[in-house]
Structure formats: structure tokens, C-alpha cells
Amino acid sequence: MNSLVLSQIDDIQKQMEGYTVLLSFKYINLCIKADAMSLMPVTVYNEGREHEIEEVAHVSVANEFQLLVYPKYSELLPNIMFGIAQAHPEFKLSVKRGEMTMMPIEEAKEYREMKQGAEPEEINKMPDADPDGDQKGLFVVCTMPDVDKERRDLLTIAVKGLHSECIERIETVYLRQADHIITMLENTPPQEAETLKDALERVHNDYKERADMLRDEKLQEIDDAYARYTFKQQTTEDLPEDWDHSKGIRIDQFNQ
Asked: Which of 51, 108, 169, 205 is the most exposed place for a label (fewest CB within 10 A)?
């Protein structure tokens, strides 16, 4: 088997793998569900130095729609909030006080699978804290935004645009390298040459399909989130005007 061609195909595969991994990372940062990786782009500044989020804070998945960020150094809380807001202005940020409860990654994955659509009531009921006051024991709650119609449309455009960009890169590598490989195979026995061409074509098709799968999964996630938002809106509209959402009863009923 032509080792030079095999090495070339391996290099092509690595490039295409990089493009699909980058696409996956970009989709994670079109935040719908809570994912700790979405905070990787966050830069925290302190005394003129840049820090990645994991250098200055612990990040935990609280539930399907919330991340908890615990500063390693309490005085960096405002800097951390600023960094998160710069990277993800769409997040709703709040400050709570309490002990750190880290959820292991696998447990968090199981939680998300079991709690599809669960409301993060436990976190929301915790008392708010003043970020400018005593900062001991404070942590940041990052809540994912609702997907209303406007956000659904914007996310859909972004998902399709990022997918097209990824496919274009895959096609560029394939077309550029395919001609080169065909030239390298001119003096290779026909059966071996055909086998190597088929291997290149499989790599090409596999990564196009992977990019398509990532796109379809993200679009489904967007549709599910929009359906959840519209259902919540309809449910709220059906309730009487004097309904107390925190207690789940009518206000006049509570006062009786």
C-alpha cells in the first residue's frame, strides 16, 4: 500500500476532524442548555493580567439551564462577572450566597437527561446577594436565555451559517488534496489505487455527514427550546391576573 498516500489521507482526516470539532465548539457557544464548555472563551482580567476562567473559578452545571461559577478568590467576583458578560451578554447573571456544591460531569450529564425541561426553582429561590458587599461565600448563577421567536430565528441563521462555513472548509481541503493524491497514484496498481481513492472518499463523506449531524442536532435543540418557551407563555397567559407564581395560588385565595 502506498504509504505516502496513506499519510496524506491521514493528514486530510485530521484537518476535517479539526473543522468539525470547531463547529461543535461554536454550537456549544450558541447557548441554549447549560454547558461548562461555553465558559471557555471567558477572559478574566486582574491587575493587568489575563486569566482563563478555570484559573480563577470552579464551574458547575446546576441543572439543564444554569451554570454556577464559584470564585477561587472572593475579591475577583466582579472581574469574573465582567468576563462572563463580555463573552456571553445573553446570559442572565445573578449573585447568590451559599456553599459550593460541585456536580461531577457524568452526574450532570445524567441530570440533564433525566430533567428535560425542568425549571431551576431551587437555585432561583436562593436569596440574592450584593456583589458589592461582603463577598465571602458568593457565587455567580448563569441562566440561559429563553428562546423566543426572534432568538430562534437568529440562532437558526447562525447554525446554518456555521455549518456552511464548515462544509466549505471540508470541500476545499478535499478538492485541493484529491487532485494531488490522484497524481501520486499514477504509477500505483489499479486495484490499490482504487482502494486508496475509496478511502479518501469515505473520509470526505464521513466528515460532511458529521457536520450535517451536528447541524441537525442543534436545530432540533433550538426547536425544542422554542416549543418550551411558547408552552410556558401560553400557560402563563391562561392563568388569572391575580395569580401568585411563587406560591402557585391566587393572591385573594392566599389572603383569605
From this structure: 205
